[in-house]
Amino acid sequence: MRLILLGPPGAGKGTQAKMLTEKYQIPQISTGDILRQAVKDCTSIGQEAKSYMDRGVLVPDQVVIRVIQDRLGKPDCTRGYILDGFPRTVAQAEALGDTLARMGSTLDHVLSIKVEAEELVRRLSGRRTCRSCGEAYHLLYSAPRKDGVCDKCGAALYQRDDDKEETIKRRLQVYQSETAPLISYYQDRGLLREIAGQGEIGEIFERICRVLEK
Ligand code: AMP
Is the pLDDT of residue 134 over 90? Predict the structure, then answer.
């Protein structure tokens, strides 16, 4: 199954993608995670991406397209994958279409997860991540047992620079202007399925599974 999870930052794409990888045994491909790792490793892509990410704006299309083409060529993608955070512009969607056509492959579904703006800000500003193992927490919805410490590995939790209030606002604006047009792009191609993204994580997951199994 080849799937795109579309939705604003904070819609729960990463959380749902992780649950889907377990159910369907296919990898989650998050361009945000790949780029954050590249920044940490100080690779040339990481150095190029960092200033854009810190400002909450999109990394140039040609950089992310290269990243994704490289990732889709890996052997674990042969049975399918969940794209989380890619594509984010029409140019990226077109490049993805060309890459898949060259590989003789197509997309099965594009899921658009919808959440109201106020709830997105609440979710993003409470988000915390483990510096060591990457486990995700939320101060309101899934707090760690001990303040600031990862339940799984005991390392310190941190707030992503781009989850601070000013940058959150910028990221939501960027979503509206650059990424939201992909909803009609994929609707026109008959691939779009809408998912209500409010409520319990498990409930949202069930909604997604029902749509995928239809
Ligand atoms: P995310 O973890 O998906 O919220 O991504 C964090 C940041 O990485 C974004 O704010 C962008 O700066 C960058 N990024 C991730 N995916 C993309 C993409 N497909 N196109 C451009 N920039 C991206």
Answer: no
The domain 2-26+79-212: what is its CATH number?
3.40.50.300
- C-alpha 85 – ligand 1 centre gap (Å): 6
Give the pLDDT mean for 79-94.
97
CA 214 to ligand 1 centroid distance, Å: 30
Structure token pair of residue 187: 């609707």
pLDDT at 163: 87
* Cβ atoms within 10 Å, residue 139: 15
User: 127 catalytic, yes or no?
Assistant: yes
Pick the catalytic residue from 122, 160, 169, 193.
160
pLDDT digits (tens, 9 = 90+) for 197-211: 999 999 999 999 999
